[in-house]
Each structure stands twice: as C-alpha cells, then as structure tokens.
Amino acid sequence: MLCCCLPFGVVSLVFAIQANTKAGSGLYDEALRNANLAKIWLWAAVGVGVLGNGLVLLMQVLAIMADS
Fold first, then answer.
1. Mean model confidence pLDDT for the chain
2. HEC profile for the chain?
3. pLDDT (average), residues 44-60
4. Predicted model pTM
5. Which of 2, 65, 50 is nearest to 16 (CA)?
6. To 5 degrees, how large is the angle CA 23–CA 15–CA 22?
7. Phi-psi region of 26 (alpha: psi -120 to 50; beta: other; left: phi over 0)
8. Distance between CA 9 and CA 61 in Å, rounded?
C-alpha cells in the first residue's frame, strides 16, 4: 500500500485506523464508512502505483532501445 503511491496509501491508512477506533467504540456504522473509504483509497494507491511504475519501466525500456 505505502510502496505503490505514498500519499494515497497514507490516506488509506488513516481511514483504516479511524475505522478500528470507531469499531472499538461501538460506532459500527461510522466504522464501516471509514473502512469503505480506506478500501477506495487503497485501490487508488495500487492503481496509481502500478500505472506509475509501468510508465517508468516503459521509459527505461525505450531509453535502452534508443541507445542501441
């Protein structure tokens, strides 16, 4: 999560911590809402991370091909 896209991963982590805290307090509806937000941000982090790493890899391959 944190390695894919750090800013989105941190947001996801904050929502997950809030979900655990609210679940421990008995606020299950709010905990579920925060857990769902954490999941959305997690998938955003993974998507942006995979896309970004794929672009970097593509640029490296194209640079190698241009040198040869």
1. 92
2. CCCCCHHHHHHHHHHHHHHHHHHHCCCHHHHHHHHHHHHHHHHHHHHHHHHHHHHHHHHHHHHHHHHC
3. 92
4. 0.80
5. 2
6. 15
7. left
8. 28
